[in-house]
Write a structure and sequence with these properties.
2 copies of one chain form a homodimer.
Chain A lengths: L9 E2 L5 E3 L4 H22 L2 H4 L13 H18 L3 H17 L8 H6 L13 H19 L3 H16 L16 H12 L2 H13 L6 H5 L8 H4 L5 H4 L16 H18 L2 H17 L31 H17 L3 H15 L17 E2 L14 H10 L6 E4 L2 E4 L5 E7 L2 E9 L6 E8 L3 E8 L8 E4 L2 E3 L5 E2 L2 E8 L4 E5 L4 E6 L9 E6 L2 E6 L10 E3 L5 E6 L6 E11 L9 E2 L5 E10 L11 E2 L2 E3 L1
Helix pairs in contact in A: 1-3, 1-17, 3-4, 3-6, 3-17, 6-7, 6-8, 8-9, 8-13, 9-13, 13-14, 13-15, 15-16
Chain lengths: 630, 630
């Protein structure tokens, strides 16, 4: 294995990327104009902001509340950095003032513990989400500083992190604990990157190294307290797997437990692997990624097969109606794969990131940006619909911060290489070989696969341009200034590598044919045997009741006939729909008979499929991704 | 609608029936020799018997414990009546002595309340199973009296019932309550039938009539107590549906809630309909039966689609891996259909009774009679196995009492009609038209469908002989003394009716062809679309891992080829197995790929199916009833 830093990339920062396309730009605008202001209203109306005033007669906060505020600040900060809005800037400043006042003299900052049970500070790490909330505050502080250059929140979270560093660590007088919900680990690395303060990196490493060691911290801790979720957690089969503390992280090889916890842990492991060049952490990440990608991810990029644990079950267990596939978990999967890409520019990570982004993440928010799915099943009987807010409302601000920072996920670079991971129109501004490079990208992706890149340079410059060739594409073509470029001869881990001297106005054209594909599952996915899913480009399709005959489960696709793709500008904000001839089972001759020795009769029907991400944006009804095939 | 009593039949009592066949007789012997003694040991070892001694330092009883003892006495009594065993007789007498001593002076008898919380007597009807336990004691008292002519237990339960009658009833000074788990209603009707004491019938009617009336008894009651199951029941969506008190029983039209509670209620409704000639109760039973038989019963005759409520969900929702299908519920379904048959000799009731008996009931006990399923799923990944006993151990003695009394379910009669519902070899002794009739039955059922009946009479006697023509049989043939009898011209509601003067040694031969059938579900059963179940005669088949390639879910049956049935005396105690050629999906080319745009390859495989009731009697492994069909 090569040394880690040899392969290291850095994401092109948000500030250097403009998104200007027909697919994502409108969604980012909706996020800015509707979602972020609406979420602020929710923070007000639910008492989350008022709780920061720490009044005994004010709202009684829930342990997670601070994290919702933090994620909203983070989303708002990203948004400010791309589209300045003085009103939002002021709102954020006002909340930061409240956070500053809520911070205790020693640096501690947590509305729940300060108001409800100050005597239990750091005593219920397993359940209380105390360090988790701290982590989100830190992420917010970093984002706010980068976006605005203001240090108001950064100072608060540094003071908090400095205090945490006096409480936790390997020294004999410090606690050997870590959080039951991972998050602070990745946040501290972000804080280290912006402050260059080594202590934050070391503290993150301490939390990661300590996790799962024996004697088990939570076993000891819970002898002295009844944890906040104890009644629930007592019913769990394996609570240590649930929060990934069943083994030291470097020994973990199966993706287990709560999906969001797992993703945030793996993000931090990848970050730390890169920062301290720890190959054992990278190896663990690769092992876990293989287990997930080969056995535990829905075709939508959703993860988590089970409601009770909000998490993973066993290999190949991917139920469709009862899938959990939490929006936050799919977002976490994007975070993790994006980090893996910086360690190892392998298209498999870009593929999984793209799969989640266009399907299992985007389904989490309504087209109007006002309603959210907490879980994203792959089949519904018609009783599952997006909601405006949740008691535990982690998903809404999470999707908001991802949309507001989407630019960061498109490009990476190192000294002499520029990498394109996602096909999102706009431009990226790089410094490569000490030259200023602007890379323009233009397409009608994800509906069409023709993508044009244009180079803007002041002088001829030699560098590698790596362009992701998606795993879903069988016959990609590429040309440079009109000349065919042989991808097969220049492919490295799923990226076409064009190493040449580039000049101003050089043009690259990538053609990704997008036939409608029928997708099949590994035969061990028992839920999908003899079922097919429709995919075109990165978009996974579903069938909805409103477009099809009732009883979607009884529709079956013949294995041969053609499926047709057609752009419909009036449907669901403009999408490519897929249509074809199918059969469905006739219930008429069955009356009140439940079992017969003759099979049901089949009738022809027109099948209409729409992108999975866009489901439940019209009248309520059933939905399915996996369709019978005969 | 005809008046009820015109169609009324009475089951030929156990005393008048001898079972002598190759299928059931060995099972009844195992029940007598192994199961009943083993259950007594369990009653001893778990402290259930000792708890009757009411010692403060003795075992602390669970609210259900008395019912387990009662059902064991009931099973033992039936067994004694067919096969006298002085040791068992003595054991039962000894337990009855304990019950007598445990009875309080006013007649009250409940080990849990007497020891644990006497102050709560009758205060937690919703949760405490107090009247439920009383009901089982009453059933035991009736069975013991009929079997032994001893009044020891009958007197105890009459005293208890008399006392209950002073507590509950329509009079102003009495409680208007009823039990959260139905059972006493049907027990009181049994007690009425044996004692002719009208009070018991009236009390049963009171409980049935009162159920579901407003103001709701349980709402009022639970204002004054925290019910025994309150923490659990608070998590229920609809607790009133769970215990079928959501509406007055005559208004109920959907089978809802806890399956065993529902069955015991419907049994009592059918009994009461017959006793008081209440057509509205019969109509309600018919409505509920149509809902269940048309939409809510597994092909095995199991009922209850859901674990949490141990009960019914919505129409056509019949998941296979997660089915509950409690053994007790299938037994309750046999009880109810047997009662419906007495009201209306319609083959549909005999069909459902037979379906449950040979499949969903019989699967509840291992071939050696020593282990039990509490729930009977229609698919298993290999992690579900019978157990020797359960904390709540209702199922073991329930199946034991059904096996010990199976003779009662075979025949019914009224003045001038003898009805054959089940094909179980042996003989029944009737009094018809004041003549002594012995009807001999001989067959190799359920493995072969040729059934021979022989009449024994002292003199020529005219009566109707009604023989059930099973719904699964398409081309039954019948002959009387060698002459073809045209069934089509003499079929009434699924019974061939032979109305003639019968003579000694008359012979009837019924031929029920038993091809292997592929069974299909109503297209609205989404879990079974494009799946087929194998059935032959009354026996539903399954495939087990031990006989087939791994990954049973990936096996599919082509829609045409032949399935072969063959008796194998060495397999599972002697069964007809079904074999055929099928396909399964090859996992080899998939490696670590989860999704592909090419379908899995198919390979030929030999399929071996065995009776569902006999599964999990060899090495542990997966099982499926519904098999893919292509």
């Amino acid at each position: 294995m090569q040394m880690i830093k040899d392969g290291q990339y850095k994401p092109l920062p948000l500030q250097n990327v403009e998104i200007n396309d027909t697919f994502w730009k409108p969604k980012i605008n909706i996020n800015r104009l509707h979602t972020i202001p609406f979420q602020y209203q929710q923070l007000i109306e639910t008492g989350r902001i008022a709780a920061l005033k720490l009044k005994k007669d004010g709202p009684v906060p829930h342990p997670f509340w601070d994290s919702d505020i933090a994620k909203w600040i983070e989303a708002g900060s990203y948004s400010l950095s791309k589209h300045y809005d003085p009103e939002l800037d002021q709102l954020i400043d006002d909340v930061i003032v409240l956070l500053g006042k809520a911070q205790e003299p020693d640096g501690y900052l947590n509305s729940y513990f300060t108001i409800v049970c100050p005597e239990n500070r750091w005593k219920d790490l397993r359940d209380s989400h105390e360090l988790y909330c701290a982590g989100h505050l830190i992420e917010a502080g970093v984002a706010h500083y980068i976006a605005t250059q203001k240090k108001s929140l950064l100072n608060i979270v540094c003071k908090y992190a400095d205090y945490i560093d006096t409480v936790f660590g390997p020294e004999p007088n410090k606690l050997k604990g870590y959080c039951g919900h991972q998050e602070i680990e990745l946040a501290l690395i972000k804080l280290y990157r912006v402050t260059k303060n080594d202590n934050y990196l070391k503290l993150s490493q301490f939390f990661i190294d300590e996790r799962g060691r024996e004697p088990h911290y939570f076993d000891e801790e819970q002898k002295h307290i009844k944890g906040y979720f104890d009644d629930l957690f007592r019913t769990f089969d394996n609570l240590k797997e649930y929060n990934q503390s069943h083994k030291p992280v470097r020994e973990q090889d199966q993706v287990v437990g709560h999906s969001v916890r797992a993703m945030y842990l793996y993000c931090a492991m990848a970050d730390l692997a890169l920062e301290i060049e720890d190959v054992s952490l990278l190896t663990a990440c690769e092992r876990l990624w293989n287990n997930l990608n080969g056995r535990k991810v829905y075709i939508t990029g959703g993860i988590g097969s089970e409601h009770k644990y909000e998490g993973f079950t066993f290999d190949y267990d991917l139920p469709n109606e009862t899938s959990y596939a939490e929006t936050c978990a799919a977002i976490g999967l994007v975070f993790w794969n994006h980090r893996m890409l910086q360690l190892d520019c392998d298209g498999k990570y870009a593929d999984l990131m793209e799969r989640s982004l266009y399907n299992g993440v985007l389904s989490g928010i309504s087209l109007d940006g006002k309603k959210y799915f907490y879980h994203n099943p792959l089949a519904s009987l018609g009783d599952i619909h997006r909601k405006e807010w949740f008691g535990v409302s982690c998903c809404p601000p999470n999707i908001s911060r991802l949309l507001a920072s989407l630019g960061e996920y498109i490009y990476s670079q190192n000294e002499n290489t520029v990498s394109v991971h996602l096909f999102i129109g706009g431009k990226g501004t790089f410094n490569v070989q000490n030259q200023n490079l602007v890379l323009y990208q233009k397409s009608n992706y994800p509906w069409e696969g023709d993508i044009d890149f244009t180079i803007e340079l002041n002088q001829e410059t030699e560098f590698k341009l790596k362009i992701h060739i998606p795993g879903w594409c069988k016959d990609a073509k590429l040309s440079v200034n009109g000349e065919t470029f042989n991808i097969e001869d220049h492919i490295e881990k799923g990226y076409a590598v064009i190493n040449r001297k580039w000049n101003n106005n050089d043009k690259i054209r990538l053609i990704l044919p997008m036939p409608v594909e029928r997708m099949y599952s590994h035969p061990d996915v028992r839920q999908n045997v003899n079922h097919v899913a429709i995919q075109r480009g990165p978009i996974v399709y579903c069938i909805e009741g409103t477009d099809n005959v009732n009883n979607l489960h009884s529709i079956s696709l013949p294995s041969n006939p053609e499926l047709k793709a057609e752009y419909d500008e009036n449907l669901l904000g403009g999408i490519v729909k897929v249509t074809g001839i199918a059969q469905h089972l006739d219930i008429k001759p069955w009356d009140d008979t439940l079992y017969k020795s003759v099979p049901p009769e089949e009738k022809h029907t027109e099948l209409v499929a729409v992108p999975y991400y866009a489901w439940d944006n019209r009248e309520p009804g059933p939905m399915r991704v996996w369709i019978s095939e005969k």
